[in-house]
Design brief:
Distance between the termini: 38 Å
Bound molecules: coenzyme A
Organism: Dyella kyungheensis
Largest sheet: 7 strands, mixed
Domain N-acetyltransferase: 10-157
Structural class: alpha+beta
CATH topology of the domain at 11-114: Aminopeptidase
Keywords: Acyltransferase, Transferase
Oligomer: single chain
Protein name: GNAT family N-acetyltransferase
Amino acid sequence: MTPMPATAAVRVRRAELSDLDDLAALEESSFATDRLSRAQYRRHLDSESAQVLVASANHRHFLGTAVVFFRKGTQVARLYSIATKKEARGKGVGSALLEAAEKLAARRRCVSLRLEVRTDNEDAMRLYERLGYRRIGHYARYYGDGADAWRYEKVLD
Ligand SMILES: CC(C)(COP(=O)(O)OP(=O)(O)OC[C@H]1O[C@@H](n2cnc3c(N)ncnc32)[C@H](O)[C@@H]1OP(=O)(O)O)[C@@H](O)C(=O)NCCC(=O)NCCS
């Protein structure tokens, strides 16, 4: 696997059918529980209420993904998932995905973006707090393996 050059620009685009293998593999390597299946990703690609984003460098080199959910009747968007390939972490991919998710939510007239994170996921919490997310709730035994979650929110411009 070619490593991501430190200077490569990260681009974020909508996921396509040809990304499904990369999406499923990244999900498998990033999360132990509560994973999105390939079939779920497939459905989200065509859904009005979801948007799957892909970060890439050097044209089509897949680096990471974010999944945003929208629900009718609410102006609160939900970041359901975000993950960067292990070898590309710490280079701004997660930040680029999160900023793209925020822009997308704002374009769909959402006033805030919310997300949940395992209370032991330090890397993710640092990213969220650096980008201006605030803790608004705590949920005991939120995840399939019994782990607790923090809920975070950012009010969008
Ligand atoms: C959480 C996660 C998505 C972050 O992705 P990432 O691509 O590493 O995120 P970034 O690179 O934007 O930010 C991470 C760090 O790199 C630093 N960084 C950002 N851009 C950088 C750049 N161009 N060069 C060097 N470092 C950079 C950031 O300052 C940040 O440091 P900090 O966390 O100490 O503040 C990633 O760790 C991951 O996939 N984890 C597994 C899945 C997961 O837990 N997802 C969250 C579920 S809620």
